[in-house]
Amino acid sequence: MSTSWDRRIERAGELSEKHAAVSDLLVFYQQLARFQKSVYERLAQARDHDASVLLPFFPELISLVKRAGSPALAKAASELSSDSKEDLLSLLDSVWQHQVEPHQLVGEYAFFAQALLQPYAEFLAAKTGSVEQTSSAVCPFCGSKPQLAVLRPEGDGAKRFLLCSLCATEWTYRRVICPNCGEENKDHLPVFLAEGFDYVRLDACDTCRTYIKAIDLSKNGNAVPVVDELATVSLNLWAQANNYHKLRPNLFGV
Fold this sequence. Notes:
The protein has 254 residues and is of the alpha/beta class. The protein has helices spanning 2-18, 23-43, 58-68, 71-80, 85-96, 109-128, 225-231, 233-241; strands at residues 146-154, 157-164, 170-172, 191-194, 197-204, 210-216, 245-246. The protein is built from eight helices and seven strands.
């Protein structure tokens, strides 16, 4: 799995040079991914693996965000630096145990919870091994909502997978169905493409007005879904302007 983190870091660097409008975001994500990789690798040395094992990583994350994050994130980092260990653990547990959805947390706190829980959840998922496939629209390992859809080459076409927003587990999911409300009428499931990003599409639903972004690896095998999703935030803004809401906002709340 370390190679997966390395590829994310490399891809963020590649795309930051190609897309000036999101260069700052991708450069920050690159630094964050390096931090997350180090968390992932150090978890292997821990004796216990409940969420409290993440508490020692908070100061390093707070320092990184103060140094390289947006003003809003830096402000939240300063606030978190004075929180007790009990409060920080409560923040992690509230997301990990699905007591709240990240977007329901105050301010930018969701970012910090997810930034630490992502490598933790990926570590646990890798340790557990393969999971049973499911027709559910939530992750079969950790129960989180999907961040993205991934289209992987199969035969003459592409098969759709959903990618978990927390543990990066992928599971197969039918193409003509809304993962939010279950709508199956293709006339209510428009697909939007954008010039300049022929391998990225928005799978929308006119019934519940949600969408999920899909990265088509049959068209671009070099794409790294979680990174390329960040590089195409302009599509998210277009969707918002057209009254579609993302099924699950990304790490940066977009």
